[in-house]
Amino acid sequence: KIARAALHHWEEPCISGTSGSGTVFFSYCTLGCVFCQNQEISHGGKGQIVSAARLASIFLELQEQGAHNINLVTPTHYVTGIIEALRLARLNGLSLPVVYNCGGYEKPETIQILSPLVDVWLPDFKYAQERLGLKYSAAPNYPETALAAIAEMLKCAGPPIINDDGLLRRGVLVRHLLLPGQLADSMRAVTLLYNKFGDDILLSLMSQYTPPDNPSVEFNARCPELTRRVNPRHYEALVDYAAELGVTRCYI
Length: 252
Description:
Elements: E1 2-8, H1 13-16, E2 21-26, H2 39-42, H3 52-64, E3 70-73, H4 79-91, E4 98-102, H5 108-114, E5 120-123, H6 130-137, H7 142-157, E6 161-162, E7 168-177, H8 183-197, E8 202-206, H9 217-222, H10 232-245, E9 250-251
Parallel strand pairs: 2-3, 3-4, 4-5, 5-7, 7-8, 8-9
Antiparallel strand pairs: 1-2, 6-7
């Protein structure tokens, strides 16, 4: 089930380039993030059911439109169908790199199965503390699980390979979104990533958290800290911290 397939110009520069990333947004998600910006898709399941053959043709249509890559957004729960679609598309002329855009909450076995078909891994590393993974995403053992997944992605893809046009051809780019009131956790997350992977991964530190327009009474009571935007000074402090730690390959 897919919600949208189109050129997307607002990913990191090495993903979107000048022509856009060929994004396919899959309906539903393996995580239950309370602050998700795409609730209608991820929680509500908005979208249309397509066959593997139709999905393969969508990949080829995006290639014809000038996409730099095929960007699979929250795809994990449809892995079997996606593998079939990618194989069909390759047989029919798909030559673009494939980007696996996920929340980081993956099994190493899934990554191994996908490895022959995926070129660029684009996971989140959302939290350094398990309690935040439980509170915000209903995800037990999130840090441990995501770090193991990223390690497997790096094993499959190797260090980043960036073409002369500035596009990421192969490698791992890890995203981290700073949440309101969670600067200390974000610093811990950056530390974990840098200590474990160094410059073998690219990092993207994001600041664009947006509170829900009409938060429910339950949301206000459970997550009052998420009803406001990120303090710009906190984001600047996070960037400074990453630089002092030694991080150099980072989008800000």
